[in-house]
């Protein structure tokens, strides 16, 4: 026999300990979920910025080509920038609409 007293653990105490551990795990999961959501928002913002800048530069390039080879100076660049801007705004709106519909579907679950 040992001189150490036996630890008595009642079922209620075990349940309380289990509940505390579960609450700690859920709090940790919520914190990481909020961080993931913030990173997804930043990613979408960078994507929109890239689409906007890319569309403008593509339009500028096509306008420059038009001005150089077709002799439409300066109208090729002006029209190219406007078409590039319109195309990039369309792509940004399309991406935003898709991400909004995806988040609406995840809220329904």
UniProtKB/TrEMBL annotation:
UniProt entry tagged with the keyword Lyase: no
Q: Which keywords appear in this protein's UniProt record, sorted alphabetically?
A: Hydrogen ion transport, Ion transport, Membrane, Transmembrane, Transmembrane helix, Transport
Q: Quote the cellular component terms of the Gene Ontology held in the record.
A: proton-transporting ATP synthase complex
Coiled coil ranges (UniProt) are none
UniProt-listed GO biological process terms: proton transmembrane transport
The membrane-spanning stretches of this chain are: 75-93
Q: Which Pfam families match?
A: ATPase_gene1 (PF09527)
Q: What domain of life?
A: Bacteria
Similarity field: Belongs to the bacterial AtpI family.
In UniProt terms, what function does this protein have?
Answer: A possible function for this protein is to guide the assembly of the membrane sector of the ATPase enzyme complex.
Quote the protein name from its UniProt record: ATP synthase protein I
